[in-house]
Write a structure and sequence with these properties.
This protein is of the alpha/beta class. The protein contains 14 helices and 15 strands. Helices cover about 35% and strands about 20% of the residues. The strands form 3 sheets. The protein has an 11-stranded mixed beta sheet, sandwiched between helices. Strands 2-3 form a two-stranded antiparallel sheet. The longest helix has 16 residues, at about 75-90. It starts with 9 loop residues before the first strand and ends with a strand.
Length: about 425
């Protein structure tokens, strides 16, 4: 028989981000609400000979604000983004682990996601070896800089956190998977506080070249800010993004006892698989339907109760279409449902997408506002009818339940469900 337990309530008490639209939550959210694009020409490497020469890069990040100078060389940029966004979230939650004892630290954990880990470090080290004289002069930090789990470990070490600690890797569903794992750990009573998030620093020659070879990236080099255009008949691929995002998930009674502010409640999580193709989503959105249904079932609510869905919608031909078909099928009859695609502004943060879009969902509930899909001019006539896609401008609207979808290469699907916080 499966272990029986009383499910505990889980709330969000802290947020943090390093993003293409600002290096803190406040500036990021202002840009999202205003419909600002973070796309610009690539500066991380010389992209002159690449089919795609733009991305949504983080601007103005200063690692010296988070690390001692001698530390910086130990960490790939994806770990630096992780530590920086986690720091903001921890401080936002009002948690001071320097004053807490062993027992409290043992009840706090980290599940951090990355689809690529330290890919820029890997690329650099291998290139230096093969372009050299054949002598293996690898950096002693090469392996710990590269491996995807290291960000979770570094965050725990900085704060002395002794609870569950690991990395989830499910491609672009990775950080939504991490959040659902944290949600489950808390409600099963295995932790009181969890840091959930993800980070990527994959604007590199190997990544951009690889996605170009897979025909996945937009090549709208003459107008990068308009390149990510989900649902548009002229969409030609996604825009790569980078950054990090963290959410503090906390057991409700624990949060109340310490007087924490509460942003929203996490009420459901669902995961499934398309079992269909290496990179393409199921044409009818089979995995998406199963993942969303699982999240709703987990929360014990009906499809008619969902007010807004932050779609995965990356601006690819098959992906946008299959997800919208899944929503049209599952939510048929829900006339109040609104959807939008915020990757039109942030670009696609790959393994960090689920976390940064969870922040968007939480703030949408707090402020009762739906962020827009920008750049979409002419909706593809193949898109199913009857789904209300918010275009161009944010909309003030009552919101109670908000769903966040993410899908990854390999057929991974993950959907998390948030509820407006009420005392």
């Amino acid at each position: 028989m499966p272990r029986q337990y009383e499910k505990k309530r889980v709330v969000v008490t802290g947020l943090g981000t390093i993003s293409p639209l600002g290096n803190n939550v406040s500036s990021f959210w202002k840009s999202i609400v205003a419909g600002v694009s973070g796309a610009a020409p690539i500066t991380k490497f010389d992209a002159a000979n690449f089919k795609t020469r733009f991305a949504c890069e983080v601007q103005g990040f200063e690692p010296e604000l988070y690390f001692e100078k001698k530390e910086i060389r130990k960490y790939d940029l994806f770990t630096q983004y992780a530590v920086a966004s986690a720091k903001e979230a921890i401080e936002d939650a009002g948690l001071d682990y320097s004053t807490l004892g062993m027992d409290e630290k043992a009840r706090t954990g980290v599940v951090w996601a990355s689809g690529n880990g330290g890919i820029a470090t890997f690329e650099q080290q291998v290139k230096e070896y093969y372009l050299g004289d054949g002598t293996p002069r690898f950096n002693p930090f090469f392996i710990p800089k590269m491996i995807a789990d290291i960000a979770a470990g570094v965050i725990s070490m900085r704060y002395g956190l002794l609870g569950p600690n690991y990395c989830t890797v499910s491609a672009c569903a990775s950080s939504n998977t991490a959040l659902i794992n944290c949600f489950d750990l808390i409600r099963m009573g295995r932790a009181d506080v969890m840091i959930a998030g993800g980070s990527e620093a994959a604007i590199s020659a190997a990544t951009i070249g690889g996605f170009n070879a897979a025909h996945a990236l937009s090549q709208r080099n003459d107008s990068p800010k308009e390149a990510s255009r989900p649902f548009d008949v002229d969409r030609d691929g996604f825009v790569a993004g980078e950054g990090g995002a963290a959410l503090i998930l906390e057991e409700y009674e624990h949060a109340v006892k310490r007087g924490a502010k509460i942003y929203a409640e996490v009420v459901g999580g669902g995961m499934a698989a398309d079992a269909y193709h290496l990179t393409a989503t199921h044409p009818e959105g089979l995995g998406a339907i199963l993942g969303m249904k699982a999240a709703l079932s987990d929360a014990g609510i009906e499809t008619a109760q969902v007010d807004y869905i932050n779609m995965h919608a990356t601006s690819t031909g098959t992906g946008d279409l299959s997800e919208l078909r899944a929503i049209a099928t599952l939510f048929e009859g829900n006339q109040n449902l609104v959807v939008s695609a915020t990757k039109s502004m942030t670009g696609h943060l790959l393994g960090a997408a689920g976390a940064i879009e969870s922040i968007i969902c939480v703030l949408a509930l707090r402020d009762q506002i739906i962020p827009p899909t920008i750049n979409t001019v002419n909706i593809d006539p193949e898109m199913p009818q009857g789904v209300n896609i918010l275009l161009r401008e944010s909309r003030q609207q009552p919101l109670n339940y908000v769903l966040n979808n993410t899908f990854g290469f390999g057929g991974h699907t993950a959907s998390s469900l948030f509820k407006k916080w009420e005392e």
